[in-house]
Amino acid sequence: MLRLLFHSGDKAVTSGKRLPVLPDLEISNTFALSDLADNIYQYHCCVDWSVSLNVIHPCWFAMRAIALQADLFKDDAQPFKALGLVHVANHIRMHRWVEPHERVTMTSRFGKVWSHKRGYMFSVLTTVMSGDECVLEIEAHNLARQSDIIEGGLVPYPKPEILSADNAIITNKPLALPSDLGKVYAKISGDYNPIHLHPLSAKLFGLKRHIAHGMWTKAKAFSVVAKQLWEKELTAHISPTLPNQLQIDVQFMQMIFLPAQIEFEFTLDPSAPHQAVLWVTSTQAPKPYLQMTVSW
What is the pTM of this model? Predict the structure, then answer.
């Protein structure tokens, strides 16, 4: 964590004198999922995933990918200042459910870099292999905020499509998020970023209060979507069958300051029969905290 805090990046890049170039670097980790059975169980309880399904929540792998990404971020060749990177979008392509008896290899590497009105955007790609089979692909988009950038030379980051929630339905009563949610999730994820732990530590980094982990919010949201799409299978404790593959796309739109009350708004678009959309909302917020699109 200390190396992340003190990683200052390439001064020529952070001062706007040179275009950023991402290093050709990858980090891998191979492990048996059975060795992490307690962690997986705790995670499933934390994000309200049915443990009786006997398949692993796809966002658990995205959580594990954060640790690999941290090793990439603190490498000396990484051009951006590590402190203050903002996770703005996350995409998971799942080719099949992963079962808890498997042995997997996770590999993370840098992807693309784009220009952005607030600095530079870049991606980190993670693959999850079970033997020779790719079972999941994860793409995280991060914003490196800086005021000085080089105009031109990079493709602008595409503007995300924000869908209308006019036809959405509320799927639950308001859900109260406690002040210590960040600490609970940190013990499971290993992500002890101070902005998630306490109001005072968050204020040191310019926030008015501490905020919920974005990947907890995504995982909880997908658990809600799963209950809407596969209610019969979940009731019967049967793993839902994927037609081909499942795509889980999330746009993080604003921070959830803790404590909070949130709602989940869900819709199935008749014009897109293989797509569901969910928003995490609050009556206190002018726009959704998160937009999730699930397609299959």
Answer: 0.92
